[in-house]
Write the structure tokens for this entry.
Amino acid sequence: MINIALPKGRLGEKVYKLFAAAGYEFAGMLDNSRRLVFENKELDMRCFWVKPFDVPVYVERGTADIGAAGKDILMERSPDVYELLDLKAGACRMAVAARNDFREDTEKILRVATEFPNIARSYYSGLGREIDIITLRGSLELAPVLGLSDVIVDIVETGTTLRENNLSVLTYIADLSARLIANKAAYKFKGEVIDEIMRRLER
Ligand code: PRP
């Protein structure tokens, strides 16, 4: 049996539709229910909804053979998995943003609010810039508006949230989208089936 972890939420629904279009359907997956595990006996596959941040954990530990995770989450968690395919769903970018009137003062430690402390740390250490990381869970845009931080490291899709809060992008750090990932041992033993899934998703 192949176990598949998909991220619960908007991105996961897009990814599930790719799986369904590729011939991997799981009855009830898109019903608005609280069920989390779905099985397709004919395919001998099981699919489950997990919190987006947790997909790499399920795949790395082998509870899921494959999964779909945002590149942001892969960059943040650096799981020991194979990244097989760019699913192209949920394209957006990781950016540094600040208030429109922000002026960089290299004499001061930069206060950086983010949901992605490892990404922020590695970006600024590459620049040799000393920072103070403030880890938040969502609505990052509030931090510079209220003076909690100087900048944010966050996901930008359309740019609407930044614009509506008088913020703008200083730098783009990375292009993001959903990726198909696989457990390393599972790929060794179920490689043929996983390759077939990958080929069909690619088409
Ligand atoms: C994400 C991200 C930004 C927003 C960007 O938040 O953190 O806030 O989307 O999208 P935009 O550029 O199209 O405006 P999400 O809606 O996932 O909610 P969150 O703030 O709770 O993380």
Remarks:
- The chain has a mean pLDDT of 97.
